[in-house]
């Protein structure tokens, strides 16, 4: 591929995301200030959005559509506690075969819609044995072991700079707000380091032991690409993981996807309670 082609590709990405954002704006006058990406089993939170305009991903120009059961694909623009939000009910993953450009596309669109803060949520395996199944954990940092980077390829300066900082990718201030809110609601929000793998196979016990040695507390197959893209665009991040299962080898039992989905549903009340109270505080924090 010639450098010239590459430049065209970056421009195309911007043009395509702009087109998607324009289509979304044509359906609602609301201007979302905050984005929320709902992970596996956590999609029901979307029902909490008031004044909702729900847009199937398949109707948004260039938007990738998930192939995984349990990941419904809709963008919901509406309000939570009076705050205009853009909620992604479902996401696409690299393990489905999507390119980095496709995986990063929805986050680009959220950025172009004008969000300043993004809450990324996911189902994760618990590497740290301090966590129990069903624990909600805030992400303090990540290790990207997926072998790819969402900002790979020619840089589009209208999105952000070529090289960008990741030292406080997960905002300490937003994390603190989340911990305070959880405490107010009567439970302790732990924090931990999320290691991202490509998937779709779950890990081997040897891999989990290695990841623990590397300093990881949680393992999953999403999130880091969205966080990289959001940081590229200067968006602040709060990351929340639901420990749907203990990681491979921690317990003497296999991991299955149905269980992952079921735990998400079981903690839905706690998760919803936290997010509903947190969103107005997060959006209004200066
Ligand atoms: N590993 C990777 N991804 C996951 C897991 C896991 O154990 N649980 C939920 N998502």
Describe the protein's architecture and organization.
There is one protein chain. The chain has 286 residues and is α/β, with parallel strands linked by helices. The chain has a single domain (13-284), classed as Rossmann fold (3-Layer(aba) Sandwich). Helix content is 34%, strand content 23%. It is built from seven helices and nine strands, in the order H-E-E-E-E-H-E-E-H-E-H-E-H-E-H-H. It has a five-stranded mixed β-barrel with strand order 5-8-7-6-9, surrounded by four helices. Helix 1 crosses helix 2 (100-113) and helix 2 crosses helix 5. The longest helix is centred in the N-terminal third of the chain and has 25 residues, at 3-27. The chain starts with a helix and ends with a helix. Residues 1-8 have low confidence and may be disordered. The structure holds hypoxanthine.
Properties at a glance:
7 helices; 286 residues; alpha/beta; 23% strand; Rossmann fold; binds hypoxanthine; globular; five-stranded mixed barrel; 34% helix
Q: At CATH's second level, what is the architecture?
A: 3-Layer(aba) Sandwich
What is the count of structural domains? 1
Percent range of helical residues: 25-40%
Poorly predicted ranges: 1-8
Strand order of the largest sheet: 5-8-7-6-9
The ligands bound in this entry are: hypoxanthine
> Radius of gyration, rounded?
18 Å
**CATH superfamily placement:** Nucleoside phosphorylase domain
**Mean pLDDT, as a whole number?**
91
Calculate the terminal CA-CA distance, rounded to whole Å.
45 Å
Order of helices and strands: HEEEEHEEHEHEHEHH
Regarding CATH, which class? Alpha Beta
Shape: globular
Number of helices: 7
